[in-house]
């Protein structure tokens, strides 16, 4: 099926804006790790940002919000058109894109001019310029328009294919957007009803604990918005790249449905240390968080079986003989299996974070960034960078300028992030806080400084790996296509075949998204209702608003 | 509900995964119920305060009202004898802070308009560093304090010196 | 790339072995932090 030129170009721009944001964000990541290790502090060479915390805000917003949202929306457009073989609504694609761009520019202006140094969680009573909050809202509304476009296209497909099963990659797209839409309701309420009125000065007080609870309703499913597109690539592209088949298609579908159910009622595992929420409901959300770990464990098994299948097809035998024969030098394989290996450690550190009272050991310590640089930082980010090569080939017929470099930077990142994460997690066990300019803090002892130094070595390797990618990718963008225009038309995004395939006697309820959405909303209400009740009865609004630069209350 | 689309290996992986997380959950709830190792909960009988202080409420029993403020805890030095049980209440008068005693797994978000609480027993003498672990502005990295737990004799000597 | 990707009655024994190893590693890592909590709260 031919992807129209307009969509190829606009998908390119979604990807390019994301990658340019990440290039900036990763540069600040380097400054942070050097500043925390006391090697080099913010100063003349940091593009005018004079401050560790401003760089940290840029690092968080540009990498975790701008890069991810733009890349995912662009990638899912292509998956939708290829798997449904239907055209998206062109007007909505442009409307969504420009809304997201305007929102990003607004927020970026606020952060770069040091008016929004509140980190990407923007907890009140620290106050940012309204442009930051309005920008964030527009970025989210822009993504809602992309969701609307996808749903309309799906419903048209449904009408023309009554009784036909939704293609598995499309199940992953719907799961991603269902989780994202239900999640963004939380932060939309926080920003529209509390933060914008408060930062505009119309309202003179704010309840910080209420704002936190609304944010973390959004904050955890946000993580699955980042993860599920990577799972889509691992499930439906990787097995074919590896030379085999996906082990079980129905189980892939079950996994994405479990994410729709359990992604939403779990945000309170970010608030185990919070006041104003009873430990009973914290335990309930801890249990539900364990339930949302199960689909990831099933993914580990399903993908391991798929890779074993590919290894056997390539002649590997014996219990682990299939590992040697896998195409480890292929940049697409390295760029997806590398993150999968790192994600094994990302997974268990995540389960530790979610383990109720065990969280007290690691909450807000360096352990947490150690964890999430392995999850969103590698499982999602690196898979997306690999997808950028694949999309450049599919959409413009341009193979990577250097496949060797692409494989090299994949493994360099894996080594770098494992060293970085190990150092940060050891620091976390010692109780050293995250999001803190340790280079200037008086309470670091020698052993902790050494651990931070080790983490800095990992950080430098990660930065070098991204630099290699960035050069390789830019040259790929500007080089001539390797195939003629006509051939590009024919190139399809080859989704994988499956060993256990879905067939007509797959139970119908597995393809009915309304049931799963209804249960997800029910679980959200049942678990968050009592939590908001607790917050309302035991926490209060305060007449506070502070800039991060001076302790004087902006509200008189 | 038919389950025949799951083959026996996948069903087996599902059981192992559920088993693992249930073991973790039972272990976690077990020590919460049996040994009282728990997370902070709702405090409705204590109003936010704006002055931090250590108050002795019994032999070896203290109440620490710890105030978080932009860029220093009040009080930021606490001295108690070995074996003391300290009930800590935290709140903030400005922005969100985090109160974390290193090595004690005590971690309390310190939030304006809310009161957090934890009970801590200090059986081993020594200095326990506590730090702010939630970004609260440009002075955040210097916001810390120490809890000094002194053996009995030293504590008595310290009290005389400080005319307590 | 070999085109014949079909294996008859494939049994994912290697994946089962990997999964068991991963689960055991998970338990060891998790209980080490769990122990750290109990020791820290012990006093």
Please tell me about this protein's structure.
- The complex is a heterotrimer of chains A (556), B (164) and C (43).
- With 556 residues, chain A is mainly α.
- Chain A is 69% helix and 1% strand.
- Chain A has a domain at 327-479.
- In chain A, helix 1 (5-36) runs parallel beside helix 3 and helix 8 packs antiparallel against helix 9.
- Chain A is globular and about 65 Å long.
- Chain B has 164 residues and is an alpha+beta fold.
- Chain B folds into two domains: 1-38; 53-161, Cupredoxins -  blue copper proteins (Immunoglobulin-like), CATH 2.60.40.
- Chain B is elongated and about 80 Å long.
- Chain C has 43 residues and is mainly α.
- Chain C has one domain.
- Chain C is rod-shaped and about 60 Å long.
- Chain A binds chain C through residues 243-245, 247, 297, 300-301, 304-305, 307-309, 311-314, 319-323, 344, 347-349, 351-352, 355, 357-358, 360-362, 429, 497, 499, and chain C through 1-2, 4-5, 7, 10, 12-15, 17-19, 22-23, 25-26, 29-30, 33-34, 36-37, 40.
Q: What Rg of chain B, in angstroms, do the CA atoms define?
A: 21 Å
Work out the largest interface and the residue count of each chain.
A-B, 82 and 68 residues
The CATH architecture of the largest domain in chain B comes to: Sandwich
The quaternary structure here is heterotrimer
The profile of the biggest β sheet of chain B is: 5 strands, mixed
Pattern of helices and strands of chain B: HEEEEEEEEEEH
CATH topology of the largest domain in chain B: the name is Immunoglobulin-like
How many structural units, i.e. domains of chain B?
Answer: 2
Strand content of chain B: 35-45%
Extended strand count of chain B = 10
Q: Give the SSE order of chain A as H and E letters.
A: HHHHHHHEHHHHHHHHHHEH
Give the termini distance of chain B in whole angstroms: 72 Å
